[in-house]
Amino acid sequence: MTTMMTLNDCITFLNDHDGYLLLTHIRPDGDTLGSAAALCHILRRMGKVAFVYDNPQMTDTYAPFLEPFLALEGYTPLCTVAVDLAAENLFPEGFGGGKIDLCIDHHPTNSRYAENLLCMPEKASCGEIILELAQALDLLDKRTADLLYIATATDCGCFVYANTNADTHRAAAALIEAGADYKALNKLFFRTFSYARLKLEGMIYAGMQRFGDKGCVTVATITLDMLEESGATEADCEDLASLAGRVAGNRVAVTVRELEKGVSKISLRSGEDFDSAAICALHGGGGHKMAAGCTIRSDPDEARDAIVWDILEAL
Known about the structure:
- By secondary structure, the chain is α/β, with parallel strands linked by helices.
- The chain has 2 domains: 3-190, inorganic pyrophosphatase (n-terminal core) (Alpha-Beta Complex), CATH 3.90.1640.10; 195-314, Roll (Diaminopimelate Epimerase, Chain A, domain 1).
- It has 11 helices and 12 strands.
- It has helices at residues 7-16, 30-45, 63-66, 126-136, 142-155, 166-177, 182-190, 195-206, 224-230, 276-281, 300-314; strands spanning 3-4, 20-23, 50-52, 79-83, 102-105, 116-119, 209-211, 217-222, 252-260, 263-270, 286-287, 291-296.
- The two termini are 36 Å apart.
- The mean pLDDT is 95.
């Protein structure tokens, strides 16, 4: 049975344990990577032994920020902590499983697989939770601020997504005041794209489809053939789920990405009047009310039809 923790409970736990291995989720984004690296740095400053699991799907954009914290070959942890990891099916590739001692998360659909859970679903990012831990421990330095700015900014689309709130901006301000190099980080993560990424975006826009009353459901599809034709790599696929939501009149934005033959990843983005997580839960997924995902074992067209049907039924 999972023990639900407060922030103070979590601090006590972190003080009482050692030999940490921090897990990030499959197809890791800036929030899971930045939060895990920041927590690792905090633990080391507390005098603990701590490493981040070397997630094989981490892209080159994030690698320089994570390299100082990656686990050494043969490292045997005493305490495993999952960061921004909502369910067991999101464990990183190559992780052998085992007991998860603690999970720190902000997803309301967390499956409570860990022995202990600090979950704060009111936070726009897991990075904001790690920030509160750093502040409570008086361990917020420039490196932590940089890593948590990456976590916070990427999970709210540089503060333009609907999950952004006043607390998100206050967190960003605190990180900037602590020395986060927000100008360089914003340019790196939000204003610099490869030619292949821009070519892929053009293909996505050209193939967008609209469904429902007045085209209120917008679908963007990314196939393996599109990735090959554009020359895009995994590093070019960050934040593709935001593109469909740019269409005027959109209520629910759907992104269907072909991961392999017969397997499609679905990402939903919506306003406050629609529960994206509930739709994704029908297919074994979850997330937040306005941003959720799932995986459907079908080709992109079949996956699109299945998820659009469910959305239109809900609407």
